[in-house]
């Protein structure tokens, strides 16, 4: 395996020790992808792999640990199934070359704020898909001093009954922005409302004033997909507008973020999103439009008026 530079294993029943033996004898390896490898418990990238730069791990159901000692790794991708409760522990040491980091897992916002700034100080692009988060606020030790783009998706956000709602979740998202002083682009995939009590219109006296936090002097582009009338989403948008003097473009997409309609297909909008759209538009007119500075452009993406509502799901 002296000349092997890229290794992709899809649905391969290789075990952890077998993978370790393979990697230790592939000194020219630069990229490794593991998808649906259901026998792997741990992955260790040895320091001997001096050229190794990219690791992708997706849907390895019993995986518990990923450890990398490769000095030049610059890209990492981890997708962990929502249905799998097992937490994957990550050990990267001080990854000075890490530039792009993608993680889809539970409690990733807490992990990112507490661990990544110090272990990956040169990170430039961070993408996080969070299934749920913890109640306690993370301890932010340092900042992402070079982070330019931050993508957060909460589309599958679940709140167990022991979780707090409302401002706790808002301040967690604001902490991510506060920890990124050089941020230029922020994209958020918002969660859907769970009931009428989540709507900003349910509590018209809800505080929408300036929330204590830093000024995002370099932030220029913000996009919120699946924008809705949820208090969390409206308050966060208002906070960004109040704290971002350099904002150039704010895009509020009240669809599901998929392609628009064409001659052969309808818009990618599910029933819940379609039904929420009028309230989302009303929230934009009532709470958002008046706060947009004259130097910034507001783009609102609506469901296509030519498309009929999605049909109801079939009965079970």
UniProtKB/TrEMBL annotation:
| Family matches, as Pfam families | LRR_At1g61320_AtMIF1
Q: Which InterPro entries match?
A: At1g61320/At1g61330-like (IPR053772), LRR_At1g61320_AtMIF1 (IPR055357), LRR_dom_sf (IPR032675)
Q: Where is the At1g61320/AtMIF1 LRR domain?
A: 1-305
Report the protein name in the record.
Answer: At1g61320/AtMIF1 LRR domain-containing protein
């Amino acid at each position: 395996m002296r000349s092997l530079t890229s290794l992709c294993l899809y649905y391969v029943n290789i075990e952890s020790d077998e993978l370790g033996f393979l990697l230790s004898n592939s000194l020219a390896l630069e990229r490794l992808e593991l998808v649906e490898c259901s026998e792997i418990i741990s992955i260790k990238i040895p320091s001997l792999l001096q050229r190794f730069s990219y690791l992708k791990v997706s849907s390895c159901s019993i995986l518990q640990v990923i450890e990398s000692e490769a000095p030049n790794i610059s890209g990492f991708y981890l997708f962990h199934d929502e249905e799998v409760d097992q937490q994957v522990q990550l050990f990267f040491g001080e990854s000075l070359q890490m530039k792009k980091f993608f993680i889809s897992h539970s409690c990733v916002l807490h992990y990112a704020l507490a661990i990544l700034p110090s272990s990956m100080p040169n990170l430039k692009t961070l993408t996080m898909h969070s299934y749920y988060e913890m109640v306690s606020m993370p301890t932010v030790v340092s900042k992402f001093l070079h982070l330019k783009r931050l993508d957060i998706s909460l589309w599958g956000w679940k709140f167990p009954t022991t979780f707090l709602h409302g401002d706790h979740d808002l301040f967690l998202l604001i902490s991510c922005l506060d920890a990124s002083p050089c941020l230029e682009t922020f994209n958020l995939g918002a969660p859907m409302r769970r009931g009428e009590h989540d709507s900003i219109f349910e509590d018209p006296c809800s505080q929408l004033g300036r929330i204590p936090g830093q000024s995002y002097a370099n932030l220029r582009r913000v996009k919120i997909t699946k924008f809705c009338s949820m208090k969390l989403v409206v308050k966060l948008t208002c906070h960004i507008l109040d704290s971002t003097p350099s904002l150039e473009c704010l895009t509020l997409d009240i669809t599901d973020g998929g392609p628009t309609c064409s001659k052969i297909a309808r818009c990618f909008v599910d029933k819940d999103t379609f039904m929420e759209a009028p309230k989302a538009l009303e929230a934009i007119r009532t709470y958002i439009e008046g706060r947009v500075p004259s130097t910034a452009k507001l783009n609102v993406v609506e469901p296509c008026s030519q498309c009929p509502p999605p049909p109801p799901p079939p009965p079970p």
